[in-house]
Amino acid sequence: MIRRQENVPARDRRALEILLATKTASELHVADVVAELERLGVSADEEEEEDIDDESGTAREARVRRRALQARLREANITRHKIVFLLGDTYHALGEDAVDGEKEPLVTEENHNYEEAEALRKTILRGMHFSNQPWLSNLTAPQQLLRL
Fold first, then answer.
1. What is the reported pLDDT for 133?
2. Which end of the chain has the smaller Cβ count within 10 Å, N or C?
3. CB neighbours of 49 closer than 8 A, spacing ≥ 6?
4. How many domains does one find in the chain?
5. What distance in Å separates the CA atoms of residue 27 and residue 50, rounded to the nearest whole number?
6. What's the pLDDT tens digit per position in 46-83?
7. pTM of the prediction?
8. Hey, is 40 helix, strand or coil?
9. DSSP category for residue 49
10. What is the residue-wise DSSP string for 90-139?
11. CA–CA gap between residue 136 and residue 99 (Å, rounded)
């Protein structure tokens, strides 16, 4: 929001400060969630088995806890993606206003943040399961579209 306020002097610098602090906080949050998953003996990348019919109350509670933590991790990664992408945008805006000697480090940071955002996006998408979604079967495959 600060970056959109044209009447605020040095708005991009202020936005950068806020985003860097927010990025640090989000990384700490993700580390806490990952540590909690590891404490439960689950990898952050591990997928849940859905075929559980006769589980005890304790096993059911553990499964619900794992799912909740994995959902929390996914949401934290989505938030981190937004922050890192906005950092790339902010470095880009700062680079547009910089003199030649100041541009190179800003462009480097811009590219680094966009690459990190792309990696986070892939991580988020990798965790999504589309194979058992009913809406997916209603979609037409690209090969079928080509035959039309």
1. 54
2. C
3. none
4. 1
5. 29
6. 665 555 555 778 888 888 999 999 999 999 999 999 99
7. 0.73
8. coil
9. P
10. HHHHHHHHS-HHHHHHHHHHHHHHHHHHHHHHHHHHHT---TT-GGGGGS
11. 50
